[in-house]
Design goal:
Elements lengths: L7 H10 L8 H45 L7 H20 L17
Helix pairs in contact: 2-3
Amino acid sequence: MEFLPHVQKEYELLVKGGEGPLKISLPDLQLETLIFGLHCLDRAVFAPFGFEYRAVFMDHAFGAACDAFAAVLPEDLGGPFVELFDKQCQGRQQEYGAMRLLPAEDGALKGVLC
């Protein structure tokens, strides 16, 4: 299944450029990329506007992301997808939220949101 048009070519380039087969499918890669993007958006909105605005804004952003995926899924998969997406977003929010934005003084990248 391909969620977004024209990404098959980029996915094939990732497969070619890797040392072995990718350990993630194209839809999973797209989903993880979207979740990471939502987290970055969350941080970008929270910093200047604060918690209340961020909460409302991110609810709308989450809804828009769900609608975009639901548009390409069979109707009967919409509900289960939203539940899975919500669960994955919450887990990644905790994981990414614990990471620093910049490397430590020694330049180490472990625990940095690159």
